[in-house]
Write a structure and sequence with these properties.
The structure is a single chain. By secondary structure, this protein is an alpha/beta fold. It folds into two domains: 134 residues, Aspartate Aminotransferase, domain 1; 239 residues, 3-Layer(aba) Sandwich (Aspartate Aminotransferase, domain 2), CATH 3.40.640.10. The strands form three sheets. Strands 2-8-7-6-5-3-4 form a seven-stranded mixed sheet, sandwiched between helices. Helix 1 packs antiparallel against helix 9 and helix 9 packs across helix 13. The protein starts with a strand and ends in a 14-residue tail after the last helix.
């Protein structure tokens, strides 16, 4: 199998070996249905209970029963928003969110808009940060929910959720936090964030795909998203994904154990990669908050090249990254996140995201620093825009962080 340099951990992470080992028994002999009364079923129930406790410890939930397992981060987000919206429609049909949310939030809100809800999309500053006072101004007497991400998946900016929570509780409005990109990477405490709902996805912190969780504060009014049996204390119908839940629990336990060590290692590599590229590639810049940013994330804009071309060029060298542009998913519009921070379209389309993990090495980063400028040089050699710039016929659109 080809050896890749994998730098797309915000998209997904490879399950840790300990996670796979924990899951294997439940793919073999321990295959019982957790709702069955006989021993095989009760073994599955016990495994789910243990995983719920492991996840509760990771996010600081005192009562593990506040955690409901789901089919992934997107389901958790959909349930949080739709569930609270439908349960509180008598109060009003207004939702407040931000202009830089993940598509799971954006499209859920757009769906509710088609059903008659009104949504306010609060803008952000040039680093992608939302001002809590702007959330306050957006809340009305009809606001049923505020939904804000903990950290942005594209540029890594960490939002002031604690301050936003204070605003929401002063106004008597429940707060949902999309913590899919932060749980397992940085310390996340339900008590510190003081939110009513918290969405989590296992595959973002070295767990399996297809499993997530929603932490629900007691007393939060919400409707069920999936109806059927009485699973998860009558909150989410469907036979539990025991294998995935066990893997998520083990991933949570490992994250709690290794988080501080991993951050130190990954941050050093991220900074080395980012500085190396910015120093070698002229007309390049970093997007996101320089300080309040996920330690593993670096979103860079390279002038006069397309993000899709960068992805393909790096892939040919065995390097996996993502683009800040939506073009890689078959769309032509630039990233809504980069648009929201005021980035010109040319730079939005020429953005690439590096997101590192604990298994990345110094040698891999040095290889990327060596290869990346060559890929850019090749692409710019095909670009008439870059030729005009070199001839002095075109000015750079990069401001402030250019290396020229």
């Amino acid at each position: 199998m080809k050896k890749y340099i994998y730098l797309d951990h915000n998209a997904t992470t490879p399950p840790r070996p300990e996670v796979v080992e924990a899951m294997l028994p439940h793919l073999r002999g321990h295959y019982g249905n957790a709702s069955s009364l006989y021993q095989l079923g009760q073994e599955a129930r016990k495994a789910i209970d243990i995983a719920r406790e492991q996840l509760a410890k990771l996010i600081g939930v005192r009562n593990p029963d506040e955690i409901v397992f789901t089919g992934g981060g997107s389901e958790s987000i959909n349930w949080a928003i739709k569930g609270v919206a439908f349960a509180n429609r008598t109060k009003g049909q207004h939702i407040v969110t931000t202009a830089v949310e993940h598509s799971a939030v954006m499209k859920t809100c757009q769906y509710l808009e088609s059903m008659g809800w009104h949504v306010t999309y609060v803008g952000v500053d040039g680093h992608g940060g939302v001002n809590p006072s702007h959330i306050r101004e957006a809340i009305t007497k009809e606001t049923a929910l505020v939904s804000v991400m903990h950290a942005n998946n594209e540029i890594g900016t960490i939002e002031p959720v604690e301050e936003i929570a204070k605003v929401c509780h002063e106004k008597g409005v429940p707060l949902h936090v999309d913590a899919v990109q932060t749980v397992g990477k940085i310390p996340v405490s339900i008590g510190a964030l003081d939110c009513d709902l918290l969405s989590i996805g296992a595959h973002k912190f070295y767990g399996p795909k297809g499993v997530g969780a929603l932490s629900i504060r007691p007393g939060t009014k919400m409707h069920a998203l999936i109806h059927g049996g009485s699973h998860e204390r009558n909150r989410r119908a469907g036979t539990e994904n025991v294998v995935g839940i066990v893997g998520m629990g083990m991933a949570a336990e490992l994250a709690l154990r290794d988080m501080k060590h991993d951050e130190k290692h990954v941050r050093r590599l991220r900074d080395k990669l980012e500085n190396g590229i910015l120093q070698q590639v002229e007309c390049s810049r970093m997007n996101g908050d320089p300080e309040r940013r996920l330690f593993n994330t670096s979103n860079l804009s390279i002038e006069t090249v397309e993000g899709e071309g960068l992805i393909i060029g790096l892939d040919m060298q065995g390097i996996c990254v993502s683009s800040g542009s939506a073009c890689s998913s078959g769309q032509t519009d630039p990233s809504h996140v980069l648009k929201a921070i005021g980035l010109p379209i040319e730079l939005s389309k020429g953005s690439v995201r590096f997101s590192l993990g604990w298994e990345n090495t110094e040698e891999e980063i040095e290889k990327v620093i060596e290869v990346f400028p060559k890929v850019v040089e090749r692409l710019r050699g095909l670009s008439p825009l870059w030729g005009d710039y070199k001839k002095g016929l075109r000015k750079s659109v990069i401001v402030g962080q250019a290396v020229v």
